[in-house]
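Could you join me in thinking about how sequence relates to backbone shape in a protein? We need material for that, and I hope you will provide a protein of your own picking. Once you have written the record down, we can walk along the chain together:

…
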Amino acid sequence: MKSINRNDFEVVGTVVRTHGNFGELKIQLNQAIKFKKWAFLEIREKPVPFLVKSFRVTSPDQGLIQLIGPEDVTYWERFAGHSILVPRKKGKKAKAGFDEDMIGFLLIDEEAGELGRVEELLEMPMQLLIKTTYKNKELLIPAVEPLVSYVDPDAEEIGLNLPEGFLED
């Protein structure tokens, strides 16, 4: 199992205090962010993962987050002043872990340009396939690093470098 390295994370905010009676945390943000499944609190200089129950932005630099855990205010009070972390982006490299959140992402080939949107991810015995419709025909693209050049979750794009002839009838 791969250990979590603090250098693989960046600080996106700080816990200010608890909010309400059910363990919600008021956080000061230093950048715009959307928490989907996970948030990490820095505890003893290590990122500790928590599942996100809910998150909402209350102003451009503040938000309220509720993490899965005890709905006890006193439990969560101890995290005031702790940093909130997210994994650093790895630049323009293909992401190994494709998931259902990528359905709807725009597919862009380096040569052909926009191909369409991810309609489905098909798990086959030997590989994962990205399904889209291109020129009114079903197109299946293997989700492998030589063909997928980058995944940008913020822009909801997947960059492709398809071989010559791949898109021909």
